[in-house]
Design goal:
Elements lengths: L12 H13 L11 E3 L2 H8 L4 E12 L5 E11 L11 E2 L3 E3 L11
Antiparallel strand pairs: 1-5, 2-3, 3-4
Length: 111
């Protein structure tokens, strides 16, 4: 499969809720300790996409130990170039998101 720079798409709220429910009810839900999502400031997306040659963002799954010594899911974002390779030369790799919970919306998908 060759990299053509396309990726992602718009889905309905119902589809998003269905996917989220599948994740939350899945066999690994005990591993993720109830984490529903992650918040990143727009500044980090701008930093990633502002790099020379960036055509998109790749998000990797990871895990880390939180302040309660519990392993929780994590997301790591890097910019991607037109060949489909991660841009690592500028050392802009984004993490340190704010997970939900505890930072959850009062309305929307994460409620």
């Amino acid at each position: 499969m060759s990299f053509d720079g396309t990726g992602g798409g718009i889905i309905s709220q119902a589809t998003a809720e269905y996917y989220m429910n599948n994740y939350q009810q899945g066999p690994t839900y005990t591993w993720n300790q109830g984490v529903k999502g992650h918040y990143f400031s727009k500044d980090f997306f701008q930093d990633l996409l502002g790099q020379a040659g960036a055509v998109g963002i790749r998000i990797y799954y990871g895990s880390k130990v939180n302040t309660s010594n519990v392993i929780v899911p994590d997301l790591i974002m890097v910019a991607v170039d037109s060949d489909g390779n991660d841009i690592l030369s500028n050392e802009i790799i984004v993490d340190i998101s704010k997970p939900c919970p505890p930072l959850c919306p009062t309305s929307g998908l994460g409620t």
